[in-house]
């Protein structure tokens, strides 16, 4: 167990070392995303002395490579616009994508990125998926030779020669069901091109989605799988060995599998290889939980915890103090541009120690003035913490709310912010999407959300009355049903979020009657799902005991 913990700690430390550069805005970081996971790598593409660089600084060049899973789904330009933003922010010279899902019906103008030249190898028409596409920055694309571009029944491959930096760029896609002879033929053509290279030998950058989960890249062996898969994976390893190509990505890119390839014949080409939180979050979270390093008050990014559980725990503390005939003062804090101003050197030091800090508010029972002084001391401690960590509080956004046994009070203690100003006293505070009132009542929150839902309800009801549901096309009926269901399911989660079961009435209109009103409207269409009972789910949460109506009645 000690060895496992040590390995996990070393892994976490290595990850935080790499992650720190990215978080610090290091301009030499390239983001490689594959189906939502991110694996940045920095390409040190410094050319040989005999190669001209067109007057540009070529010490560091960024190459972005990932599986796009459809560049234009339903012919929408969403992903093309996203690529444009990534290219602009990362200033990458190359963007190499697999599974573009393009065909000859889609014009280059629809997928072009400003200041980049597009090289496409589209899938064949009978295939729903596949295809590769490469974007090369204009100042590098002036001298690019397409050595190979082919789409067969299963695979797509591109081989480009970037003369400006003397690099061979290979982009290959292989689906899981690819026959052996088809893949072997594609590899043979790529191998012939690599064999024909003349001195000075170009740098080779080989990337793609090859779907080989059974390759052990450390041992350069294939384990398990079908005979066809083993033969194809073995051929890839043979090609890599013959041309001194080393696999750079070592961590899993999809769940536990390493399906993506980034190989090069220059071990100094990759300066940093990083794996971000989505890939390792399970292992790190398990380690933190098992070793007890996770603060019990941390609710974000933990299993079985959420904003709802944090609100319930917070409200439980308030009610417990009020039951004991003690007032409660809560000061809400706001850190100014936390993600922009955080000192990443200090952050990495803390992460190496596996410590977690996440202050959102300061709460203390108030029995007399000495308790208020202690709360002010707590605030002063936080201000000092901010100075030590090069952080800055946004004092103007601080809020102070007092829960009292007798309800809201105008004579509550006063607290000062870091700049010496008095923290503004509020009767209501919005906390994690829920409006909390100093009298402990959720009336204001319920009213606001019901009014918001009512606006949608009236609009959709008016829309429904304009249609004869039984007379229109079934497909149209389905679309109307989906529209209605989505419109209310989104707001229903807000309406009943974190509300105890006994909080029913709101200005004469009960939550139950409001639900019945919505369900009656939704029920006019056949097989329409009923509105989910979010308040029942919240009230049965196991972390905090259910609050009874008599408990609230005895306090407020």
UniProtKB/TrEMBL annotation:
Q: Which SUPFAM superfamilies match?
A: DNase I-like
User: InterPro entries, per this entry?
Assistant: Endo/exonu/phosph_ase_sf, RT_dom
Q: Where is the Reverse transcriptase domain?
A: 272-358
Which superkingdom, per the lineage? Eukaryota
Tell me one Pfam family matched here.
RVT_1
Q: What is this protein called?
A: Reverse transcriptase domain-containing protein
């Amino acid at each position: 167990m000690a060895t496992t913990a040590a390995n996990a700690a070393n892994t976490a430390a290595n990850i935080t070392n790499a992650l720190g550069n990215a978080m610090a805005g290091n301009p030499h970081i390239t983001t490689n995303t594959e189906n939502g996971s991110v694996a940045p790598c920095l390409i040190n593409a410094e050319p040989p002395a005999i190669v001209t660089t067109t007057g540009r600084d070529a010490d560091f060049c960024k190459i972005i490579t990932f599986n796009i899973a459809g560049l234009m789904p339903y012919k929408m330009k969403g992903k093309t616009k996203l690529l444009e933003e990534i290219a602009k922010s990362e200033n990458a010279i190359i963007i190499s994508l697999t599974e573009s899902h393009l065909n000859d019906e889609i014009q280059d103008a629809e997928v072009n990125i400003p200041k980049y030249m597009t090289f496409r190898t589209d899938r064949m028409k009978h295939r729903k998926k596949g295809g590769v596409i490469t974007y090369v920055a204009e100042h590098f694309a002036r001298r690019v030779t397409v050595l190979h571009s082919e789409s067969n029944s299963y695979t797509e491959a591109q081989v480009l020669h970037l003369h400006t930096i003397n690099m061979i760029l290979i982009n290959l896609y292989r689906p899981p069901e690819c026959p052996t002879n088809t893949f072997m033929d594609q590899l043979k053509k790529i191998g012939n091109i690599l064999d024909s290279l003349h001195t000075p030998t170009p740098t080779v950058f080989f990337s793609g989605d090859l779907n080989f989960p059974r390759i052990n890249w450390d041992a350069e062996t294939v384990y398990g799988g079908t005979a066809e898969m083993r033969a194809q994976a073995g051929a890839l390893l043979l090609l890599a060995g013959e041309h001194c190509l080393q696999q750079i990505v070592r961590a899993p890119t999809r769940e536990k599998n390493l399906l993506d390839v980034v190989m090069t014949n220059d071990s100094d080409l990759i300066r940093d290889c990083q794996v971000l939180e989505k890939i390792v979050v399970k292992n790190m979270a398990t380690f933190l939980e098992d070793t007890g390093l996770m603060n019990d008050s941390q609710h974000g990014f933990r299993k079985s915890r959420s904003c709802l559980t944090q609100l319930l725990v917070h409200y439980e503390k308030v009610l417990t103090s009020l039951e004991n005939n003690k007032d409660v003062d809560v000061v809400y804090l706001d850190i100014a541009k936390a993600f922009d101003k955080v000192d990443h050197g200090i952050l990495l030091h803390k992460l190496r120690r596996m410590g977690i800090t996440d202050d959102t508010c300061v709460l203390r029972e108030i029995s007399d003035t000495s308790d208020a002084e202690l709360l002010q001391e707590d605030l002063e401690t936080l201000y000092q913490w901010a100075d030590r960590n090069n952080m800055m509080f946004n004092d103007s956004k601080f809020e102070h709310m007092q829960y009292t046994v007798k309800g809201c009070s105008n004579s509550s203690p006063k607290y000062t912010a870091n700049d010496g100003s008095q923290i503004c006293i509020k009767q209501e505070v919005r906390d994690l999407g829920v409006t909390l009132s100093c009298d402990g009542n959720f009336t204001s929150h319920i009213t606001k959300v019901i009014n918001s839902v009512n606006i949608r309800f009236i609009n959709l009801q008016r829309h429904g009355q304009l249609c004869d549901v039984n007379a229109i096309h079934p497909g149209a009926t389905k679309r109307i049903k989906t529209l209605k269901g989505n419109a209310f399911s989104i707001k229903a989660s807000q309406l009943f979020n974190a509300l105890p079961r006994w909080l029913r009435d709101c200005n004469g209109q009960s939550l139950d009657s409001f639900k019945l009103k919505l369900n009656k409207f939704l029920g006019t269409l056949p097989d329409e799902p009923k509105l989910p009972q979010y308040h029942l789910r919240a009230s049965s949460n196991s972390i905090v005991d259910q609050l009874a109506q008599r408990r609230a009645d005895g306090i407020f």
